[in-house]
Design goal:
It is a single chain. This protein is about 30% helix and about 20% strand. It has about 425 residues and is an alpha/beta fold. It has two domains: about 290 residues, Alkaline Phosphatase, subunit A (3-Layer(aba) Sandwich), CATH 3.40.720.10; about 90 residues, Gyrase A, domain 2 (2-Layer Sandwich), CATH 3.30.1360.180. An eight-stranded mixed β-sheet has the order 7-6-8-1-9-18-2-19, with helices on both faces. A four-stranded antiparallel β-sheet has the order 12-13-15-14. A two-stranded parallel ribbon has the order 3-20. Strand 4 and strand 5 form a beta hairpin. The protein is globular and about 65 Å long.
């Protein structure tokens, strides 16, 4: 998630606790709690490169995938929503961090009204809705979509996003939720950290600032592990530690100037870089496509219906008719924007084709449901929803993933594979 401060809102925990007691009744045989932790922008190879002790120990003791492969576009909001719906962005409708909908208007990370509007999110069913419909309680300490009422529900407990809240405070709140009595305690909890992503954007994936951000987040996890151990919960909670995408190094030497090839007056550009999504003026679609296809060796431009099949992208109504994709490490901009501040194109970026190893993220699992000391091949993040539904003993909504694709993580093979 890009580093920004969003307007804080008061969260009255006592009121939420009282409401929780009225809204749901836990099953008699409640499952072990599931804690889903996202370290935004943690590239798969950071684990070996920076050797953070807590993450390394959890990976060694539990299950570690060689990589968690994100969905396209490899951006924060689309992939966080994919992980909790099991749907490709083309199906759940969060097709970018910035979007346009002919009915709803414009969506962006700074548009608080849009983020809290459940209509943007309604094409998917997030896990907190699935779980609560089946009698479980949920809690989200930041997760895209959790601030909106989706299909008539928010999480039992939730927090409006505020980047200023320290990681230590986030961990304390998660532990406080686990301290609640059985009748109020959430069964599924999320936790989110943006430090690594922010450092990667600002300084690039190879910078010492990224190493420091990894160390900092590892410290938050140490606080969490110590808190779980003190409560005798470390071996009773199923931890899933993930990242939404990786990070590629960018440079002011690798820039594509869109206005070299087409007049910007002919375009309504929804997103710029590294995925270009645009609406040509009426009657100009063929001309714009002809001007952009083959215009630059590091920019690949398609009609939405002709995008490569492995991207699973191009049918949703929010995807504009023309989509361009920059090669790894390249940026798309205009001459004027570049001249204003060339340095902004140095650093790091994601959003690129998910087949690039630089876009791959982290997946570590630890807890009673998971195998011990196991390493598995890369896993697509669309399968996490089915896995979490299995852990919570609930029936999933329709999704694109398969439990069978990720069942090797489990200590005991499931008797029945959940399917869409």
């Amino acid at each position: 998630m890009p580093h920004q401060t969003l307007r804080p809102r008061l969260s009255l925990l006592l009121l939420l606790v009282l409401l929780a007691g009225c809204r749901s009744i836990a099953p008699v045989n409640a499952p072990a709690p599931v804690l889903l932790i996202s370290i935004d922008g943690f590239r798969a190879d950071y684990l070996e490169r920076y050797a953070p002790p807590v993450l390394t120990r959890l990976a060694r003791q539990g299950v570690r995938a060689e990589a968690l492969i994100p969905a396209f576009p490899t951006l924060t909001f689309p992939n966080h929503y994919t992980m909790v719906t099991g749907l490709y962005p083309d199906h759940h409708g969060i097709v970018g961090n910035t979007m346009f909908d002919s009915t709803l208007g414009h969506f962006s990370l700074s548009n608080r009204e849009a983020i809290a509007d459940g209509r943007w999110w309604a094409d998917g069913e997030p896990l907190w809705v699935t779980a609560q419909r089946q009698g479980l309680r949920t809690a989200t300490y930041f997760w895209p979509g959790s601030e909106a009422e989706i299909h008539g529900m928010r999480p039992t407990y939730w927090m409006p996003y505020d980047s200023r809240i320290p990681g230590e405070e986030r961990v304390r709140q998660v532990l406080a939720w686990l301290d609640l009595p059985d009748s109020l305690r959430p069964h599924w909890i999320t936790l989110y950290f943006s430090d690594v992503d922010h450092a990667g954007h600002e300084h690039g994936p190879d910078a010492p600032e990224v190493a420091e951000a990894v160390r900092k987040v590892d410290g938050y996890l140490q606080q969490l592990i110590e808190g779980l151990r003190a409560r005798n919960l470390l071996d009773r909670v199923n931890l899933l530690i993930v990242s939404d995408h990786g990070m590629a190094a960018t440079s002011a030497e690798r820039v594509i100037f869109l206005d070299d090839f087409v007049s910007l007056e002919e375009l309504h550009i929804v997103t710029w870089s590294p995925v270009l999504m645009l609406y040509p003026r009426p009657g100009r679609e063929d001309a714009v496509l002809a001007a952009l296809q083959g215009a630059h060796p590091h920019l690949h431009v398609f009609r939405k219906e002709a995008l490569p099949a492995h991207l699973h992208f191009g049918t949703h109504r929010r995807i504009p008719p023309i989509v361009g994709i920059a090669d790894e490490g390249w940026s798309i901009t205009t001459r004027n924007r570049f001249v204003e501040d060339p340095s902004r194109f140095n650093g790091g970026m994601h959003g690129y084709d998910p087949t690039y190893p630089s876009m791959h993220g982290l997946l570590i699992a630890h807890g009673p449901a998971f195998a011990q000391g196991k390493r598995i091949p890369p896993v697509e993040n669309i399968h996490l929803y089915a896995l979490m539904c299995h852990l919570l003993q609930i029936t999933p909504a329709v999704h694109d993933g398969r439990l069978s694709a990720i069942a090797s993580m489990l200590a005991t093979a499931p008797q029945a594979v959940l399917s869409p």
